[in-house]
What does this fold into?
Amino acid sequence: MSIDPPEETTLIANSVLANKIKRVAKNDGSTDNIIYNANCFTIQLPVTVTVNGIVLTITEISNYEDLEDLLDEFDDDDDIVEITFPITIILADFTRIEVNSLGELEDYADDCNGENEEDDDIECIDFVYPVTASVFNSNNEIIATLTFNSDNELYDFIDDLDEDDLVGFDFPISIIISDGSEIVVNNFNELEQAIDNYEDDCDEDDDYDYNDDDCDDCTTSGFESILTNCADWTVEELELDDVDLEDQYVDYIFSFESNGTITVTNNGNTIAGTWSTSGTGNNISFNINIPDLTDFNRSWILHEIEQESGETEFELQAGDDELVFKSDSCN
It folds into this structure.
């Protein structure tokens, strides 16, 4: 059957747009840096690791949080992730390679770009699957209609196109950008424009600090609501200049009021101060000023909020200093 595909819905092999689509679909090697620091490949799941003497089998991405909990459990341990070999690594182009030792893994990692160095994959955009495509030959004849359900399938398809092949997507399709919004595109021109607009619109998180994104979804309003709706905050941890000070504040009870004031009680004594917040996400500042408790006075960065049954904690950081408050009395 001969059909003349509209130009705005036609993709040509090795074109600028075809390469951009491949870059969006590439395997993001930084997603599992908590296991091993390499940005150009991921480790195929399941994988078994040992941390601080505890064996953990990671079967899905959500288990990375279990690994992070093990790494964060103590401050005075080694936090070395020991991988049980053999494993399979998945390269950016989805090639799978068996690796039998740490030495082999290090050899492959040597080929990766370093921490936060520019790489080829576009991580700020994701395709919404399924995506359906028709393939035309140079005579404008449909030779195949295919449906893709993953980045791997789409990448392989674009990568294997012949020079004479023309591709038409079944538009509209949708993409998801870094803030979670879904954008509908109606042709290849709109798709290329969307990629150009949003490809650099996020922190690709190509670093080796697994702890630096724990507050991606934090907001000042949400944090303030937790502060003021929970009562009887206590100091779970306070470390300044590598010295643990929480034992000095065992009997101190903190109340954060909605008007920006702090009331601290200790053995019948009352101490007053102020608090304020600013920023978004992983850059929310929490400013504490208690004139009579100078250990707390600084502009902290909100690092993480943990809410479990009957208990809420939030962790603050200022450089290498850490402060953790806990409350068992939340509305």
About this structure: DSSP finds six helices and 24 strands in the chain. The first helix runs from residue 16 to 25. The two ends are 66 Å apart (CA to CA). Helices lie at 16-25, 64-72, 102-109, 151-159, 188-198, 220-229.
